[in-house]
């Protein structure tokens, strides 16, 4: 955890803010230095109860008090939410955006020309300290602010600094959106298990353990390629070979590649829309 403790205001307290806040507090970031601002009260009450952070409905009060402002609303709301914030004195404040498809240039326009911007692309496993965040700092971001943004997101998982802003869209495809691909795969396995007559709770346990185990094997065996790990499971003439061949023949790799390209395409479209 960073020793550089600053007051951080999350503007928008939805799924992603909750994930990051959960990870920060679990990692020891002082809860009293975290503020969440959101229109609906229920999410705020839950955040205050679960993590002891400060909450409110007044974005401007939160921003005024903060050293660091995390913009965490949906991309399509960013312009409207930023407009009143732009009227505040933002000098000396670092603004971190987690929104997909809102460029630094656009965000700077929305914030009245504010320059100290870091664009990030986190993901929901941040909640467990198992996040993956890509970061891109605009030229105006000084060393201390850059380091703070890195430490903040490193508190909830791994980080990757990007040389170009276009890299953020690659992070979306590989890590921001990708937990959903794995959930979808596991959902499909649940359905497959049901078709085999497996009880739902048994299916969930087996799928969960296989997924956690596979991910940990990747993590703990950096010397082995993914294909080598797969080969270790695949006995010659055995069951895995039949299953994997079925997935291959039915085009799993092409589907995944198309899906990742679709994510990037959508991020690029959003950058024009928002
Ligand atoms: N979910 C994910 O996995 C990831 C999301 N992101 C990005 O994070 C951002 C947020 O996404 P996510 O958390 O999923 O979305 P959510 O819809 O869960 O959260 C957005 C929050 O913004 C709040 N909000 C709406 N209007 C305002 C306002 N005027 N002022 C303050 N808050 C407001 C909403 O409040 P309410 O609904 O209570 O009205 C809601 O709680 C998006 O830009 C997305 O691109 C990035 C990486 C991963
Ligand atoms: O679906 C989205 O647009 C956001 C960005 C990455 C994950 N969720």
UniProtKB/TrEMBL annotation:
Coiled coil: none annotated. Pathway: Amino-acid biosynthesis; L-proline biosynthesis; L-proline from L-glutamate 5-semialdehyde: step 1/1. The keyword Oxidoreductase applies. It catalyses: L-proline + NADP(+) = (S)-1-pyrroline-5-carboxylate + NADPH + 2 H(+); L-proline + NAD(+) = (S)-1-pyrroline-5-carboxylate + NADH + 2 H(+). Keywords: Amino-acid biosynthesis, Cytoplasm, NADP, Oxidoreductase, Proline biosynthesis. Signal peptide: none annotated. The keyword rRNA-binding does not apply. Residues 165-270 form the Pyrroline-5-carboxylate reductase dimerisation domain. Its EC number is 1.5.1.2. Residues 7-101 form the Pyrroline-5-carboxylate reductase catalytic N-terminal domain. GO terms for molecular function: pyrroline-5-carboxylate reductase activity. NADP(+) binds at residues 11-16, 72-75. GO terms for biological process: L-proline biosynthetic process. It is found in: Cytoplasm. One of its GO terms (cellular component) is cytoplasm. NADPH binds at residue 59. It comes from the Bacteria. Belongs to the pyrroline-5-carboxylate reductase family. Catalyzes the reduction of 1-pyrroline-5-carboxylate (PCA) to L-proline. This is Pyrroline-5-carboxylate reductase.
């Amino acid at each position: 955890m960073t020793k550089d403790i600053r007051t951080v205001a999350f503007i928008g307290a939805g799924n992603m803010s909750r994930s990051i806040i959960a990870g920060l507090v679990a990692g020891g970031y002082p809860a009293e230095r975290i503020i969440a601002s959101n229109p609906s009260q229920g999410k705020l009450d839950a955040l205050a109860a679960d993590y002891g952070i400060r909450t409110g409905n007044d974005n401007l009060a939160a921003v005024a008090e903060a050293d660091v402002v995390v913009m965490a609303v949906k991309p399509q709301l960013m312009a409207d939410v930023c407009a009143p914030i732009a009227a505040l004195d933002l000098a000396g404040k670092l603004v971190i955006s987690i929104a997909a498809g809102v460029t630094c240039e656009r965000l700077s326009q929305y914030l009245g020309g504010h320059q100290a911007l870091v664009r990030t692309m986190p993901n929901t496993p941040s909640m467990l300290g198992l996040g993956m965040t890509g970061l891109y700092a605009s030229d105006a971001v000084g060393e201390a602010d850059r380091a703070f943004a890195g430490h903040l997101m490193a508190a909830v998982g791994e980080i990757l600094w990007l040389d170009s802003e276009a890299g953020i869209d690659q992070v979306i495809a590989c890590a921001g959106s990708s937990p959903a691909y794995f959930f979808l795969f596991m959902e499909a396995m649940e359905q497959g298990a049901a078709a085999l007559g497996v009880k739902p709770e048994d299916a969930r346990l087996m799928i969960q353990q296989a997924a956690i185990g596979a991910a940990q094997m990747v993590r703990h065996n950096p010397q082995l390629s993914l294909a080598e790990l797969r080969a270790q499971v695949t006995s010659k003439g055995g069951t895995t070979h039949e299953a994997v061949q079925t997935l291959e023949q039915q085009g799993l790799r092409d589907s995944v590649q198309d899906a990742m390209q679709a994510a990037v395409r959508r991020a690029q479209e959003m950058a024009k829309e928002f």
